[in-house]
Amino acid sequence: MDSFIFTQPTTIGQAIESAAKSPTAQQGARVRFVAGGTTLIDLMKLNVERPQEIVDINALPLNRIEPSSTGGLAIGALARNSDVARHPTVLRDYPVLSQALLSGASPQLRNMATTAGNLLQRTRCVYFRDTAHACNKREPGSGCSAIDGHNRMLAILGTSKDCIATNPSDQNVALTALEATIQIQSSKGKRSVPIHDFYLEPGSTPNRENLLEPGDLITSVTLPPPVAGAHSTYLKLRDRAAYEFALASAAIVMKVSGGKIQHIRVALGGVGTKPWRSFEAEQALVGRAPDRAVFVKAAEAALSDARPASENAFKVELCRRSIVRALTMSTMSA
Ligand SMILES: Cc1cc2nc3c(=O)[nH]c(=O)nc-3n(C[C@H](O)[C@H](O)[C@H](O)COP(=O)(O)OP(=O)(O)OC[C@H]3O[C@@H](n4cnc5c(N)ncnc54)[C@H](O)[C@@H]3O)c2cc1C
Ligand code: SF4
Predict the structure, then answer these.
(1) 36 is in which domain, residue-wise?
(2) Is residue 96 domain-resident?
(3) DSSP E strands, the chain
(4) What is the dihedral angle through the alpha carbons of 290, 245, 27, 76, rounded to the nearest 10 degrees?
(5) Which residue has the least CA distance to atom 2 on ligand 2?
(6) Which one of 81, 121, 200, 272 has the lowest number of neighbouring Cβ atoms within 10 Å?
(7) Atom of ligand 1 nearest to the CA of 41
């Protein structure tokens, strides 16, 4: 690990000012915020991240979980994953978020990991994490070792010829189904970005993963008011029951009324280059009766653009089944 300057600002303004000195907020950033450190420090030990300055933001007043001005919930950027998962309002109104968080990592990691850090966790593609291999995300233009290499865990939706890495987060899948908004502050002011727009597909620039610019600090994530009468489910399929990333996951928020699906949000994890909102599945479901044949059609629609690589074709069927199962579970909880 290279040497670096370590600062501990006590105001948001100071933190933003430090980070604004970096030429990029994406791969290769010279200044990085650190929150729980469970992603960043790992990547620094591997020389994948080599910031010259680390800005410890843990003293900033950003860990509250409270009602938002629009009747939803505001989750501070520094709220720990374990606190969010156990929060009474989350358990009552947004259980899919609690389920997703509790399916991730381990209790110790969740005690450290923060809401914003989780939003910005990096892919687990083995070649990204190993500097001996070519990786366009880590070193633009160097090539992609995964396309003809070990790609069993990687994406089948949103891929490009330059990168097929998966966004590995569970939290972000639930936040996508809940239509969360990310609140960002910089020296230019505050802005709000819907989570669906926040992440970028890799295209020819996989080193750019989201809309963040130098000096941007995520301050909170806001959730809209819960949909009255809706039920939700997070289903995660993985190689072992704990301490493992998703091969495929599905977050569902569904409201059935008068025998028809009135409100439906479908988000997928473990299969997309970003937390994947399936508008195709939603379109196939809304207004229909919630039965298995409709669920199967929706799952087929969700995977119609899937492009598997050499080792991960099994994810197409696994993901279809996870969608059907998660929809069925949401109906049973209704
Ligand atoms: C062994 C292991 C197993 C895991 N298993 C899972 C799993 O099953 N499912 C899952 O979803 N996750 C899993 N994770 C990932 C874990 O959830 C993330 O490491 C964690 O959420 C990151 O949060 P953090 O606060 O520690 O981030 P940090 O490491 O502190 O930061 C991560 C990134 O976010 C940036 N950042 C942090 N806060 C802000 C902010 N407010 N504004 C702007 N930038 C910010 C940092 O600069 C850094 O680039 C696992 C991790 C490990 C090590
Ligand atoms: S899939 Fe993406 S992260 Fe993995 S080696 Fe290829 S470019 Fe790098």
Answers:
(1) 5-56
(2) no
(3) 5-7, 31-34, 53-56, 65-67, 73-76, 181-186, 189-194, 217-223, 231-237, 248-257, 260-269, 276-277
(4) 70
(5) 163
(6) 200
(7) 29
Nearest-10 Cα torsion for 261, 267, 269, 271: 90
Answer whether 153 contacts ligand 2 (Cβ < 6 A). no
In a domain? residue 136 = no
Domain tally, the chain: 2
User: What global pTM score does this model have?
Assistant: 0.98
Q: Helix (H, G, I), strand (E, B), or coil: what is residue 187?
A: coil
pLDDT above 70 as % of the chain: 99
Per DSSP, helices labelled H in 134-277 are: 171-177, 195-198
Q: pLDDT band at 208, cuts 50/70/90? A: very high
Asked whether residue 12 is assigned to any structural domain, the reply reads: yes
Q: Which two tokens stand for residue 286?
A: 């809304």
Question: Which of helix, strand or coil describes residue 252?
Answer: strand
Please choose, from the candidates 142, 178, 179, the residue with its C-alpha nearest in 3D space to the C-alpha of residue 163. Answer: 142
**Domain membership flag for residue 258:** yes
Cα 241 to middle of ligand 1, angstroms: 21
The model's pLDDT over 81-115, given as tens digits with 9 standing for 90+, comes to 999 999 999 999 999 999 999 999 999 999 999 99
The two tokens of residue 159 are 């891929």
